[in-house]
């Protein structure tokens, strides 16, 4: 039986979620913004607790945790929430950037989310079915960013 093939954008976006799950495990209290697939890879916006900042020295530990999450066969589980339920969920998770994004969504719109392990995020998808389907990844560098800037 051959391995499944996926669109490159799906693989990149799924890998972004895998990375975000790893970051949230390694840096409890991390807040996350958006994490799209882009032309040459992917990224995720994070705000670390206590004013911490990422450096390229953190990348090997993040990659190692990504591999651990893959080994758990963590699935990408899709759910749909009402605007009110999504606001409640992300307030409970203390994710103010997500709350800000949800507040822009019109009342009555269905909000889709994906969960990978304990990591839960707003997302249209699609994703691979489980983290183990991502064949390879390499984190190359970190960069500073400003929310909406």
TrEMBL record:
Belongs to the class-II aminoacyl-tRNA synthetase family. It comes from mine drainage metagenome. Keywords: Aminoacyl-tRNA synthetase, ATP-binding, Ligase, Metal-binding, Nucleotide-binding, Protein biosynthesis, Zinc. Its EC number is 6.1.1.3. SMART domains: tRNA_SAD. This is threonine--tRNA ligase. GO terms for biological process: threonyl-tRNA aminoacylation. The keyword Transmembrane helix does not apply. GO terms for molecular function: ATP binding; metal ion binding; threonine-tRNA ligase activity. PANTHER family: THREONINE--TRNA LIGASE, CHLOROPLASTIC_MITOCHONDRIAL 2 (PTHR11451:SF44), THREONINE-TRNA LIGASE (PTHR11451). It catalyses: tRNA(Thr) + L-threonine + ATP = L-threonyl-tRNA(Thr) + AMP + diphosphate + H(+). InterPro entries: Thr/Ala-tRNA-synth_IIc_edit, tRNA_SAD. Pfam families: tRNA_SAD. Signal peptide: none annotated. Residues 111-148 form the Threonyl/alanyl tRNA synthetase SAD domain.
